[in-house]
């Protein structure tokens, strides 16, 4: 976990993508940054985008809705429902996009702390291989790298 800036993206099965990234922050703080609207607003979305809606009902069965505004003014929304919440180590939720809905994905995020760093592992199970490949080919690696770089800066400012 020495290179906290290195994002790893793998495809462990024909329907999954796993993203792994280490952060120089305790996992409780990383968990908060993933689940608290006041922190999400500071980092969520690619560079040049802003989070204009951040509604989170953090309980099993509770829903979330995020709307990011692109630099060109277009809003991009996503929704989901929390299926499992184990603070500060695990979140499982559904996810779908408001303007493109090829089916629901299942996202499992696990946080493991070691030596003051937290390893985030997020696995997305897509409804089909075709949907997974479409998302991968749309720039997922670049977008996730930007997103988690912004998160790292926010975590550093809070530590």
How does this model look, in words?
The longest helix is centred in the last third of the chain and has 19 residues, at 140-158. Helix 1 (27-35) packs across helix 2. Strands 1-2-8-7-6-5-4-3 form an 8-stranded antiparallel beta sheet, with helices on one face. It has one domain: Alpha-D-Glucose-1,6-Bisphosphate, Chain A, domain 4 (2-Layer Sandwich), CATH 3.30.530. Strand 3 and strand 4 form a beta hairpin. The protein starts with 7 loop residues before the first strand and ends with a helix. The protein has helices at 27-35, 37-43, 129-137, 140-158, and strands at 8-10, 16-23, 50-56, 63-69, 75-86, 90-97, 105-114, 117-125. Helices cover 28% and strands 40% of the residues.
Task: Briefly say what this structure is.
28% of the residues lie in helices and 40% in strands. The protein has helices spanning 27-35, 37-43, 129-137, 140-158, and strands at 8-10, 16-23, 50-56, 63-69, 75-86, 90-97, 105-114, 117-125. The model has no long low-confidence stretch (mean pLDDT 94).
What labels describe this entry?
8 strands, alpha+beta, 159 residues, Alpha-D-Glucose-1,6-Bisphosphate, Chain A, domain 4, 4 helices, 8-stranded antiparallel sheet, 28% helix
Write the layout of secondary structure elements.
Elements: E1 8-10, E2 16-23, H1 27-35, H2 37-43, E3 50-56, E4 63-69, E5 75-86, E6 90-97, E7 105-114, E8 117-125, H3 129-137, H4 140-158
Antiparallel strand pairs: 1-2, 2-8, 3-4, 4-5, 5-6, 6-7, 7-8
Helix pairs in contact: 1-2
């Amino acid at each position: 976990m020495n290179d906290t800036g290195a994002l790893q993206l793998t495809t462990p099965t024909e329907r999954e993508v796993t993203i792994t990234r280490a952060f120089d922050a305790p996992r409780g703080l990383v968990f908060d940054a993933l689940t608290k609207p006041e922190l999400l607003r500071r980092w969520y979305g690619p560079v040049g985008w802003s989070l204009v809606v951040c509604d989170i009902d953090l309980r099993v069965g509770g829903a979330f809705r995020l709307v990011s505004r692109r630099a060109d003014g277009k809003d991009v929304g996503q929704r989901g429902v929390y299926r499992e919440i184990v603070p500060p180590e695990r979140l499982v939720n559904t996810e779908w996009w408001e303007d493109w809905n090829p089916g629901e994905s299942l996202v499992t995020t696990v946080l493991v702390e070691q030596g003051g760093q937290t390893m985030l592992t997020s696995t997305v199970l897509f409804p089909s291989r075709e949907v997974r490949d479409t998302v991968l080919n749309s720039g997922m690696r670049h977008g996730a790298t930007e997103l988690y770089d912004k998160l790292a800066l926010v975590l550093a400012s809070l530590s």
